[in-house]
Amino acid sequence: MDCRLGCGACCIAPSISSPIPGMPNGKPAGTRCIQLNKDNLCSLFGRPERPKVCHEFKPCPVVCGTTNQEAINNITELEALT
Question: Pfam families per the record (predicted)?
Answer without folding.
Answer: CxxCxxCC
